[in-house]
Amino acid sequence: QTSSSELYVLDYGAGNVRSIANTLTKLGYSFKWISQPEDFAKADKLIFPGVGAFSTAVSNLRSQGLFKPLQDYIASGRPYFGICIGMQILFKDSLEARDLLASTIGGTENEGALTDEANWAGLGLIDWEIGKFVPKGKSVPHMGWNGVTFVRDNAEPGQRDGLSETESYYFVHSYCAPYADDPRISSWANSVTQYGEEVFVSTIKKGNVFATQFHPEKSGQAGLEVLRAWLESATNAASGQDVPQSAARSLSALKQNVDGFRKRVIACLDVRSNDQGDLVVTKGDQYDVREKDEASGRQVRNLGKPVALTGRYYNAGADEICLLNITSFRNSPLRDQPMLEVVRKAANEVYVPLTIGGGIKDTVEPDGTKRSALEVASEYFRAGADKVSIGSEAVIAVEKMMERAGSGGHWTGDGTSAIEQISRAYGRQAVVVSIDPKRVYISPETSPEDTERYSKETVVGASSLYTLETEKGKSWWYQCTMNGGRVLKSLSAVELARGVEVLGAGEILLNSIDRDGTGLGFDLDLIQLIKSAVSIPVVASSGAGNEDHFADVFQKTQVEAALAAGIFHRGEVEISSVKSRCREHGLKMR
Ligand code: 1PR
């Protein structure tokens, strides 16, 4: 061991570790990466920002010879901070590995690794199994901001280790450590969080081990405080030789007041090159991003610089920020260095989740080099993205799956789609599918087959939640589009949503070409239709014109998140006023 205090961060080569790096730099700490087994001996403090899937983490650690040294490091009593999978890996094992094995993914490079039972097992420090959320009355993954409640009575009420019962933290996971009145788990649990009816362990603290299920590096100022407190206080303590703990509260006592899941307000930036070749934030009306005025030469609307706007929205309290490269279908994203640079710089300034979309697909570069969607996504994750959003490619994947299944057949993936590849490596929660539906009004000319086919998914005027004057007496269904609405498909938005959930998407970003940029409010019919078709979270998008539209969509459709672009870019509505209006309606907001 070195005498100077060496902080190390464990990176086994998956997911967004740049965020934690940026956060440490922001807090004024220098650190080194663990790049080989020998590095553990040099570390005085260790952070493991585990991202991705449990079994991928375990098999990567094993194949790189890092598993045993990590186990030895923790046993040595030196301070350890685990984040997300970095917390789950302390447990005996996880249902996630078994689920992955049982899933119908064929011919994957992971399959061999998974059939080896060693790769199901975690470090085994905590004799408890990581379970899975049940999607009953709530979406899974648990994605968003939630509170914490301390398991033991608090000397300093409401606050401990930089962690506060009045703040919220960013969670993103489908698997969790269920809390129970059993010392095997209650002796390790420091705080719990409630999601729906389920109470799970949100932080672990014992001896030299501290771990969070949430992402402190993505939890804004509140999260930075948790990291800062640990960095300032972390001292050696042999595992298990802790000061005697006061009694843990029972599950029933904890369950009463801890459900603090917040609705998310997301700012979205559509990014593209303007005619001068500069990357700008633009905004369309029904996806047309050019100035209406012919005299101006129909220039691409320029609403600002992506990095500057991202920083502005972070400071204004955005719960998440979404950057969409809206013309990426035209060129190779891996050669699109300016966009990657935007992501890198944005990730340097914001400590809330960043979603990056556009061009996540298998590509062939101009020199003939093939790049898989997974490689493209990995590049974005390394640049600082937390989630990637897939648009056009998702439509193709679902069409193929439906073709394979034939009529009445079982929908199942074949392991080759971008959604499957990325969710296998990084976890379902890292994969968003962006849907660009367009209304198709049913007219007397609509063929009987079409009317029949979509009868179940057709919104009839009378059943509409929110009919505008111009829509009265009409019926319609929602058609999928690709390439920013340029290509129309026969697939319906409901089929697409159901299909991508089967393939492994963790969230749906639901746009509406009809409402985009109109300020008429979200298309509540569309949102309700999709929300009830899937059990993954849905982000409502397109059409927000004022604060009430947010309160409306949250109350009437149960979506977890709502996104806007134009009103924020033009400074017409502030994120803070959206949140206050929602609070007035009794909604929980960060
Ligand atoms: O197909 O995987 O390369 O992804 C391309 C991505 O770019 C998709 O997510 C697609 O939705 C998006 N996109 C493509 N063309 C456009 C366009 O506007 N011409 N933008 C576009 C989609 C919609 C939202 C917008 C909301 C809210 N933009 O991003 O932010 O509608 O706007 P509002 O609050 O102003 O109403 P691929």
From TrEMBL:
So where does this one cross the membrane? none
Its UniProt pathway annotation is: Amino-acid biosynthesis; L-histidine biosynthesis; L-histidine from 5-phospho-alpha-D-ribose 1-diphosphate: step 5/9
Q: Which GO terms describe its molecular function?
A: glutaminase activity; imidazoleglycerol-phosphate synthase activity; lyase activity
Single GO biological process annotation from the record: L-histidine biosynthetic process
Read off the InterPro entries from this record: Aldolase_TIM, Class_I_gatase-like, GATASE, His_biosynth, HisF, IGPS_HisA/HisF, Imidazole-glycPsynth_HisH, RibuloseP-bd_barrel
Note whether Lyase occurs among the keywords: yes
Catalyzed reactions per annotation:
L-glutamine + H2O = L-glutamate + NH4(+); 5-[(5-phospho-1-deoxy-D-ribulos-1-ylimino)methylamino]-1-(5-phospho-beta-D-ribosyl)imidazole-4-carboxamide + L-glutamine = D-erythro-1-(imidazol-4-yl)glycerol 3-phosphate + 5-amino-1-(5-phospho-beta-D-ribosyl)imidazole-4-carboxamide + L-glutamate + H(+)
Q: Where is the Glutamine amidotransferase domain?
A: 9-222
Keywords of the record: Amino-acid biosynthesis, Glutamine amidotransferase, Histidine biosynthesis, Hydrolase, Lyase
**PROSITE patterns cross-referenced by the UniProt entry:** GATASE_TYPE_1
Q: Which family does it belong to?
A: Belongs to the HisA/HisF family.
Question: Do you know which PANTHER family this protein is assigned to?
Answer: IMIDAZOLE GLYCEROL PHOSPHATE SYNTHASE HISHF, IMIDAZOLE GLYCEROL PHOSPHATE SYNTHASE SUBUNIT HISF/H IGP SYNTHASE SUBUNIT HISF/H
Q: What is this protein called?
A: Glutamine amidotransferase domain-containing protein
> What organism is this sequence from?
Tulasnella calospora MUT 4182
